[in-house]
Design brief:
Largest sheet: 5 strands, antiparallel
Order of helices and strands: HEHEEEEH
Strand order of the largest sheet: 1-2-3-4-5
Number of strands: 5
Distance between the termini: 61 Å
Helix content: 25-40%
Number of helices: 3
Shape: globular
Strand content: 25-35%
Radius of gyration: 19 Å
Structural class: alpha+beta
Length: about 150
């Protein structure tokens, strides 16, 4: 009887294994940030906010463990009665050859009043055109566009 209970306990714990999130297959959808007169207040990036941003961006990279982040700027605003933090920055990661690829610009939204949920608004694919579009979204949100290779 005792061995049966121990066996059941061990079997029930086998499903309690943490798994890393699977990276996005590269299907980048863009949720536009509307240009509006909503004022944005620049905020310092705390360690908790940095973890939310880097963790959310890593989920959209082909090699999340190799991610190297450049400058990340954040601003806080209220839109539609909902508090949101807009973050703009750059990231690079290893490509299939093992070398680091070009910096990718990104813009993301974090909703502190919804359990700090993360939403990737846009990420460039490395081309100059897509980078300009993402920088335009950052400017539209009220944050300065970041130069390629800008590091903290």
């Amino acid at each position: 009887m005792r061995k049966t209970i121990q066996l059941l306990l061990v079997a029930s714990l086998c499903g309690c294994v943490a798994a890393a999130p699977r990276p996005d297959a590269g299907d980048q959808r863009v949720n536009p940030i509307p240009i509006s007169p909503i004022p944005i207040s620049p905020i310092p990036i705390s360690l908790a906010l940095e973890e939310i941003i880097t963790g959310g961006i890593r989920q959209h990279l082909s090699d999340p463990a190799s991610a190297k982040f450049g400058t990340v700027l954040a601003g806080e605003r209220t839109s539609g009665g909902r508090q949101e933090i807009v973050a703009c920055g750059t990231v690079s990661n290893r490509i299939s050859s093992g070398a680091y690829g070009d910096d990718k610009a990104f813009v993301a939204k974090i909703y502190p009043d919804a359990g700090s949920s993360f939403e990737l608004a846009a990420m460039s694919d490395g081309s100059a055109d897509s980078r300009l579009r993402v920088q335009g979204l950052c400017r539209a949100a009220g944050l300065p566009a970041l130069d390629a290779g800008a590091k903290l």
